[in-house]
Amino acid sequence: MSVEANMRAIEKSIVTDFSKRMSYGSYLDLDTLLSAQNPVSTPEHHDELLFIIQHQTTELWLKLVLHETLAARAAFDADDIGAALKCVARVKHIQKTLTEQWSVLATLTPTEYSQFREFLGNSSGFQSYQYRAVEFALGNKNAGMLTVFESDPTAHELLSGLLREPSLYDAFWRCLARRGFDVPESALERNVGEAYTFNADLMPLVKFVYENNTEHWSVYEAFEEFVDLEENFQLWRFRHMRTVLRTIGMKSGTGGSSGVGFLQKALELSFFPELLAVRTEIGR
Fold first, then answer.
1. What are 32-57's pLDDT values in tens digits?
2. Is-contact 73 8, C-beta < 8 A?
3. Cα–Cα distance for residue pair 276/261, rounded to 1 Å
4. Of 3, 12, 50, 256, which has the fewest CB atoms closer than 10 Å, so is most exposed?
5. What is the mean pLDDT of the chain?
6. Helix axis angle, 129-138 relative to 153-164, nearest 10°?
7. Quick one: which of 91, 89, 85, 83 has its CA closest to 67?
8. 27 with 81: CB under 8 angstroms?
């Protein structure tokens, strides 16, 4: 079929009558999705739509990150390392998209943002329950964060559940123990309701796997996938902090945090500390 007058002819087989068929728009519920952008500035500021879409798309991606992370945890619970790593691989690609998104928001200049920032009240990304859910699922738990969500029963219930449940990393170590690896009791019996912290008892096992990777390739691969996951998360945190610095400088956040100072502290958090610490030990 040739192109004439710079137009493609509509092929006869293409469906055009959706009076009784499901369409693209109805499948995706686009009427709902595209009507969910409601600027609050008065008069409405041109750049507020960018700000809203940036955060809404981030929440959609976080929904998928949480979905895949919990699926990976379930796969470890079922002793299926391959399926778990497939989920982790998808999360890594999503993380790259999330990190690149900051470049779009960075086009918002301080002058532009200041013209509608006051209309945001105390709303802040700090209140993203999905972001906290991902942190909890990966092991960065903080029971104190639950107070922020007491007025949102759904969010509070989700986070309370994740606080009590093993993290992805906890599930991984339990999977290795069932496979016969010498996982210390301190890793298997830890209080999963607390933030994961470095466990020196795990270092001999971690070092053993790295030094004998050909014999334990699936575990070695899992270690490296986790390191990628953490590095991507830290890159996202860094780009977040730098975008905030670029846009509002050292002002306090709308949600009451210190802003850039608070975000900088997140760069000191770690999901898989032993996998980073072993780098110092390898080759000694």
1. 999 999 999 999 999 999 999 999 99
2. no
3. 24
4. 12
5. 95
6. 10
7. 91
8. no
